[in-house]
Amino acid sequence: MSSINTDQQVNTLPDEWTMILRPKRNLLDINLRELWQYRDLIMLFVKRDFVSKFKQTILGPLWFIIQPLLTTIMFTVIFGNIAGISTSGIPKMLFYMSGIVGWTYFSTCLNDTSQTFIKNASIFGKVYFPRLALPISVVISNLVSFVIQFAFLLVFLAYFMISGSDVSPNINVLWLPFLVLLMAGLGLGFGIIISSLTTKYRDLTHLVTFGVTLWMYATPIIYPLSEIPEKYQMLVIANPMTPVVETFKTALLGVGVINYGHILYSFCFTICLLAIGVVIFNKVEKTFMDTV
Amino acid sequence: MSNVVIKVENVSKQYRLGNVGTGTLSHDLNRFFAKTLGKEDPHAKVGVANRLDTVDGRYVWALRNINLEICDGEVLGIVGKNGAGKSTMLKLLSRVTAPTEGEIKVRGRIASLLEVGTGFHPELTGKENIFLNGAILGMTKKEISSKFDEIVEFSGVKKYVNTPVKRYSSGMYVRLAFAVAAHLEPEILIVDEVLAVGDAEFQKKAIGKMQDVSRSGRTVLFVSHNLTAVEQLCTKGVLMQNGMLKMEGKVHDITSAYKQMSVDENELRRSGTRVMEFQEYKMTDMNGRKTDEVFLGDDFKISATAKAKDQIDFCDMTLDIRNDSNEFIGHVTNADDQFEIKKLNNGESMTIEVAVKNICFAPATYYISLWLGNSYGTFDYIENCIRFTIKQGDNFIHRPYPFDKRAKTVLQSSWQFK
Question: With a cut of 0.85, is the ipTM above it?
Answer without folding.
Answer: no
